[in-house]
Design a protein that fits this description.
Strand content: 25-35%
Radius of gyration: 28 Å
Largest sheet: 6 strands, mixed
Number of strands: 38
Helix content: 25-40%
Distance between the termini: 58 Å
Structural class: alpha+beta
Strand order of the largest sheet: 3-2-1-4-11-12
């Protein structure tokens, strides 16, 4: 019997390393293991990764040769910055005249604060002529020998080099010449233009400097993990989780380790995107102490330039906002009422959850208040009982109300949970259900405030957006939040391991950005698109499955191309496919319409387009549209769209007509329609381009190399 190949995802957390095996064809979870993260082992976190992989193979009865995809996510880069455990950076500024004035100012990065009282270790040297090899060598020797003021460095000065020159995005030769001359010294090196292609000397160099500060440590880990995985017999290329929800090759991580910063939350939302097939909504990853909140909009994770060391950077990371409320958050009381929940959790206070105690341990329980840590308020509620002291938590309240499903990581006996809440309810002068509800109200109110803000920021439609909960504490927040907000909510399958599942299912991703002063030409836009596509293929993505989304921002003259692709073309022969009736009802539910009023407008082998008409007096008829995939998941929704079917051969003429008819002109300039093309198994999203001619050129690039009789469905939304 042939066994299907598997995809393995490993998430290296601060305390535990979780690993999962997922069937590469059905995406079914086959196994999961948890081992302590090996921070203090001689091989560092690499040892825990290999240990988790060994246990996973044993549990699933699979061999390393069965692995078609292996990726890991790590908090190592994030922790290095948080803890100030970084290398000393030797920054070489390049330039003469006015340029030298600007580059010399980069020495001020030594004032960046890593942690309270600890600054970024940086030494600076200047080179006027990058082609002067002798001058470059003198600068490198100066940096290697220099000591930081007030600090004695192990082994001397710079441990890693960065070269930076104004306008190196357009003229990288100077930075390359400096690195070539410095190569014999054997230090890890990077050039500012290699980290980002955006203008802005200060921000570009700062991003490169932070990247370099973690480079030696991340290189050592990468080499250890790579060697260990190879020794274990794994032939699949090792991938690493990025902070924008995709994965990259190990070689790319060696070049830009900064992309792994903040990748922990990105793994969870990648799991929601791929496993839960969320197309529009909010993802909450709830642990014991906090909840990370992120957005999926039109089937894509929301990203923005991250703030690192208190400054904005050119690092594109998941837009994640953290609230100090989790499953273990403790209740605060005063004046006979609940005054708040968190931010202190039972984990930090070193107390067990009351709901996980035995009835005997909870005997004779009375409520007391404590100060969990020095500096905390002394109004955190605890139970002093026969079995000791216990924390009253969000998880206790959720179990008391029956919100935690059986089999969930956080489930306990509801009767025990009610017994845990009972003493507090008596103190508050109310019943158990009301007390538990007030606890969840106080905790989820903090989360809801952030969720509402993100819904506004990203203009999500609350009528169609869903709230999906992941993490071991999901049941303590998500069901109550959904109930209170009126939004559809659910807990992700296997929520306690949603992060490693996200790592296992993530797609190779690359983003290329260019600032083109004066506006980008059609050729320049296509060139950026091609560069992004080549980048993911070079990292192992199957060329025929790569999708590229292009956005052109006329206000900042920025062209951005985001390419994604799988390392192998995964077959989608799932055990269940939605039939016509199921897909119709999914569309009707999203449209909030009677199925009888919903019509099939178009379709391909992979997607069906449904729509309804809304007639309004004295105003144009609106055609609400939903695109539903073969699994019955709504992949796109539009409040008003035009849908037309053609073929690859006829598409150029049809699209030219449609775009011409739908382009608007006004004081804000030319605004082409938001265009999406249904091609084969894909939805090609071209909505980020406002100029009609580049839009049509990009559409033509999507049609390239396809059979002339292949059907194409165009979905257009007119922009006002």
């Amino acid at each position: 019997m042939n066994t299907s190949r598997i995809r393995v995802g490993i998430d290296v957390g601060g305390t535990f390393t979780d690993a999962v095996a997922v069937d590469a064809t059905t995406l079914e979870l086959l196994g999961q293991v948890k081992v302590p993260t090996s921070h203090h082992h001689a091989d560092g976190v690499a040892h825990g990764i290999v240990e988790a992989l060994d246990r996973l193979m044993e549990q699933t009865g699979r061999a390393p040769a069965d692995i078609s995809f292996l990726a890991h996510g790590t908090t190592q880069a994030t922790n290095a910055l948080l803890e100030g455990d970084v290398a000393t950076v030797g920054l070489i500024g390049i330039g003469t005249g006015p340029s030298a004035v600007f580059t010399r100012r980069l020495a001020s990065f030594a004032k960046l604060e890593l942690t309270p009282g600890k600054r970024l270790p940086l030494v600076y040297a200047h080179v006027a002529d990058p082609s002067d090899t002798a001058a470059v060598c003198r600068a490198v020797e100066q940096l290697k020998d220099e000591q930081l003021k007030g600090e004695q460095l192990k082994g001397g000065g710079a441990q890693v080099l960065v070269a930076s020159q104004p306008f190196s995005v357009d003229r990288p030769e100077g930075e390359r010449a400096v690195l070539d001359a410095a190569r014999p010294y054997g230090l890890p090196m990077t050039a500012a233009h290699e980290i980002t292609s955006l203008y802005g000397l200060h921000k570009r160099t700062r991003t490169a400097v932070v990247n370099a500060a973690i480079l030696p440590r991340m290189l050592a880990t990468a080499d250890l993990v790579d060697a260990s995985i190879t020794k274990a017999g794994v032939t699949a290329p090792l991938m690493v989780m990025r902070c924008d929800g995709g994965v990259m090759s190990l070689d790319e991580m060696r070049r830009r380790p900064l992309l792994t910063v903040l990748s922990g939350p990105a793994a969870g939302v990648a799991g929601a995107l791929m496993q839960e097939r969320v197309s529009e909504g909010v993802f909450l990853e709830t642990g014991g102490t906090s909840t990370d909140i992120s957005v999926v909009r039109r089937g894509k994770v929301a990203v923005r330039h991250a703030t690192i060391l208190g400054k904005t950077s050119y690092l594109n990371a998941l837009d994640v906002r953290t609230v100090g409320v989790g499953g273990g958050s403790m209740v605060r009381i005063g004046d006979g009422r609940i005054t708040g929940v968190g931010p202190r959790s039972a984990h930090i206070a070193g107390l067990p959850y009351a709901c996980f105690a035995s009835p005997a341990e909870l005997r004779d329980a009375t409520v007391a208040t404590v100060q969990p840590m020095d500096g905390d308020p002394d109004n955190y509620a605890v139970l002093d009982a026969a079995g000791g002291r216990f924390a009253v938590t969000m998880t206790c309240a959720a179990n008391a109300l029956g919100r935690v499903p059986e089999g969930d990581f956080a489930h306990c006996d509801p009767e025990t949970a009610r017994a845990a809440i009972a003493p507090l309810a008596a103190l508050l002068g109310t019943d158990i259900a009301t007390a538990a509800t007030r606890i969840l109200d106080a905790g989820t109110a903090q989360v809801r405030k952030v969720v509402d803000a993100m819904i506004r920021d990203y203009r999500l439609d609350k009528d169609t957006a869903v709230v999906v909960g992941g993490g071991g504490g999901a049941a303590s927040v998500t069901p109550h939040l959904a109930l209170g907000s009126g939004m559809e909510g659910r807990i992700a399958r296997h929520n306690e391991v949603i992060s490693p599942i996200g790592v296992a299912l993530a797609l190779v991703r690359e983003q290329v950005e260019r600032i083109v002063p004066g506006g980008a030409s059609q050729e320049q836009i296509l060139a950026v698109r091609a560069e992004a596509e080549r980048a993911v293929v070079a990292q192992g993505a199957a060329a025929e499955g790569v999708e590229v989304e292009v956005t052109v921002d006329p206000q900042t003259s920025t062209v951005r191309a985001v390419a994604t692709g799988a390392t192998e073309l995964r077959t989608q022969d799932r055990a269940h496919r939605a039939d016509d009736t199921e897909r119709l009802h999914a569309a009707a539910a999203s449209l909030k319409a009677d199925p009888a009023a919903v019509h099939v407008l178009a379709g391909t082998a992979a997607h069906t387009v449904y729509g309804t008409e809304t007639r309004r007096r004295l105003r144009p008829t609106r055609h609400a549209v939903r695109i539903v995939d073969m699994d019955g998941v709504v992949r796109h929704h539009a409040a008003d769209a035009h849908v037309e079917t053609t073929t690859v051969a006829g598409a150029p003429e049809v699209l030219a007509r449609l775009v011409g008819e739908s382009t608007s002109y006004g004081d804000g300039g030319v605004r082409a329609p938001a265009l999406r093309l249904l091609l084969g198994s894909r939805i090609a999203d071209l909505s980020g381009v406002l100029d009609p001619q580049p839009l049509l050129a990009l559409a033509q690039s999507e049609l390239r190399a396809r059979a002339g009789d292949e059907p194409v469905v165009a979905v257009l939304e007119v922009r006002s």
